[in-house]
Amino acid sequence: EETLIGDAVGRLHDELMDGFTKYQNRLRHFEVQGEESFPDLSLPLTALPSKRYGKDVWPMGSRDSRLGDNTPTSLQLQQLARIVTFLLVWGEAGNLRFMPEVLYFFTDLLLAADLSKYSKGPGSTPFLTKVIRPLYNRIFETWYQHVKVSSNKKDAKKVHSNLEKFMPADCPNYDDWNELFCDPSRMCESLVLKSGTKLFSLPLSERFANLEHIDWAKSLKGCKTHREVHSIFGLFYAVHRILFLHVLIFCSTLVWVSSDNLGLKVHRGFLLLAGRSLEVRCAAVGLLVPCHCLVWTFSWCCTSGEGTRRLWRQQFGRTWLGVIGRVFLLLLKISFWMMPFGTYAAIRFVEAMGPNLHLEVLAKFLEVPMPLNLALVLHFFVSFMGAAIILLAPMFKQFPPAVWRTTPVACGMTILRWTFWTLVLGCKAWTSIVGIRALNTVMEDLQISRLGTEAVTMMPSYAFGTQWDKDVIQWIILMGTGFLLFISDTQFWFSLGCSVLGTFAAIQQRGCGLEGFASLFFGKKLFLLPQNFCNKVLHYMSLDDSSVYFFMLWDKIIEYWHYEDKVGQIMAGNLSFYGRVAGEDWGSVKQNLDEQYQASDDSLRVSYPYIFQELSPMDRTIGRNLRLLPDAHWPTNPDVLWRLNAIARSLTLQMPRPFRSPYMPVFSVIIPHYGETILMVKKDLFKETSAPASVDGAQATVLGRGRHVKGVPLIAWLEHRYSDEFEAFSARMGSIHKGMWVCDDGHSVTQPYEYCPHCPRRARRRLCEVKDGWPNCGTRWDKYKDKHWEELCEWASMRSQTLWRTVAGMTLYHQALQIHHQLQPDRGSSMYTKDFPISEIFTCMVSMQMYAFFDNTFLQHTNKMLDHFEDSLCIAYIDVRDPTPDDNGAFRNSATADGVHKKQDRRYYSCLIDKHCDYDGEMDASPTSAISTDSMIGSPTSGKRPDSRRRIPRYRVELPGYPILGDGKGDNQNHAIIYSRGIFSQCIDANQGAYFEQMLLLPCVFGEFRRNTGPNGQDGSKKIVGFPEHITS
To answer: What's the whole-model pTM score?
Structure first.
């Protein structure tokens, strides 16, 4: 562990600053100031401790004259300086975080800046005021007129009149502005100061100080490279290669099939409209290339923005010589693409002239005249070259001018993709012959003239006649229908190919052996679950210890199932190893394994659950799948069966070596929330009203409602949908909330007798209820009291689309990491501590956009959620500050000095709270307690319950302005992402659930990101890992 900190800094730099390093290296090739433009800070970048860029690795302890006497320390300090600088810029950026290259540009200038020439000015936050807000204000002015305060104290934004219905084709967005900074040549040419001087004409050390003087309106003008047109040409330009390939295959097949019955006309010597021989008819297919190029070019002209056109015009400069070269290149391209028209005309001319063009010497050796062969070869060559350019267009930067190159792909993956699509399209083309022949047969039976089979000499006699026109229209309709079916058929063959390829991939992921094949198809995966879990998840434990702890861990999983009311008490005992499943309340479920299973407890006897015993296929089919003879030890809940099958199937995959504590990576879960329900309330589930007279008691009972209920309440539908879970819930509540009755003599019983059974028979006393238990009233919802409805609402919330359900699932990461830290940590590490706070490595953050405007109910549910779940849960929200009547002038003067847009009436802040934050109005020891909240929305008012008040934020960061400029969900998560921790983030919608057994696989998921250096020095580790979604509604 001597080099752990140094290695961690180097790896963090590689992971976090990878994009910045590549961006900075691209900028070096476009500097206009020569060697003076390169900062000294960038010198050691060619020797970073990484093989990712193919550079040499510096061993710890080596020396270099450029970095001083202690090379590792100097290198680490420079890496830390770059990391800290970028994070500071990233944290202040606000909405500019949607443009990462812009942040790289600011970071690069800040690292090389001479800060002695940088004046702070009157603003409270100089960087936010002078660098971030000018660019943000330009973005805001592009889309919005103003943001006012509505009557309900919320924000009322007003877009420009031409943007109300839809965004025009030339309206720029974040991607367009970011593309400008991705291209150093365009950026150097576009960024100009208000004085007219180009920013890149200044020395590098002075550029950061001049960022506040950039004329952003002029610099960002005409930066859009792709017009988002609402027409068929935009769609065609996006999928033109796919469409061209389908048309090419269909027309080739059509020519092949339609040439079968042309022998009679050819024998009689007629010159047909489409050609006499198969070669000539196939040559007509080559005309698709220039026709497609014409439509392709027109679509490019419709979809190319001013930025792309400017880039195309600047290829040869702005001189007369450049204009001439540009015109010459354009004519050369036109000649190349139109050449198939000329070669095809030559073919038809040679075919029409016949023997007059035969070569006397070679004609006797060839069945086809030699000049026709030459014309065919030239035509097919030109057409093939054009088709290859169209299909392989992303590989060529100039067809048409492209802004981005394709993402590099490994050679093996490229071969696999081409093989897959060749087989799919080959099968499609082979089967399409049957369909086209069927259409051809139908047209022959209907005696419809087929286009192209007419003799040229007979065309004047029936051209444009009623019969021929009718036949042509019918031919077009039939072939057009066949072509649409031909295109639609691609989805079927693609799905079939993916199914076959997925089957082989599944077998390969499971080891390509008989055991993996059997576990995939023959239900052996459940029998192997304990062994696979011990080998792959409890990787660092011995076989004996992993078996014992797996028993405890599996019983913990069953406890969660029992607490979630997925299984009852009896089924939980059948599924467990020790037969003593708790899970009655949240406190017993969160209990640690060491506290729950004492080593000296002699009552711990292992009984192997029946579900892990290997069964024959017949027994498994009859007892579990078909349930003809139901297996009493097999759960019937569909959710449990799905989860059991999911964990067993996932453990058959090849998993990477898991991370272990205390080296677990830090990561965060981000959940966006706007106004969705947090926790169900009684009025949403059940409303008591006067029932109509026509509804009798029996009918009301069948519908699951009381006599004073109109309509079927939501709680009745949930009980009907989850009837077995509601029975388990009622039984669990009955064991938790036990009633107590006492008599006058002090005798107490737990059963609601009328008289005390302990008193003498002649002097029995009546029992008086002193502690209310859970009522046994079933679905008579009007009999439940308010304190019972709190439990019912929580039960219903876990079966509805609520934020409570999502947070309850995501915070299970906390318990899973705590168990891993308890079972298999590296106790020999100097960083190991027994009571390691899991909240240091895991954060579950809810981004509540409307927290500042919550009513008492939402605030109460939010505080209950913070108090109920672990301390790793936190909430980020957008707070606002309004001017008060007393300080309106001072507020506007301060906002003007800080660069706030004059069309925004508020100042916006990103805040963070957790369960340790004090309530607003109470004594607070946090650093933000000195912030005045008198002008904040939702200040404490008298009469509120203590749990329905807002909390004082732990952190409060000012935003450049109104944060919801684009998509609400993305902007909501963007302001909160600065509070996330670690380099791994999981974004979850508020309609997804999660389960404890899934969370136990988290260390193996982290193993997917483990650094894997390839043979060429590139990093082969994964960057994105997708999890299957279990959407609740």
So the answer is: 0.83
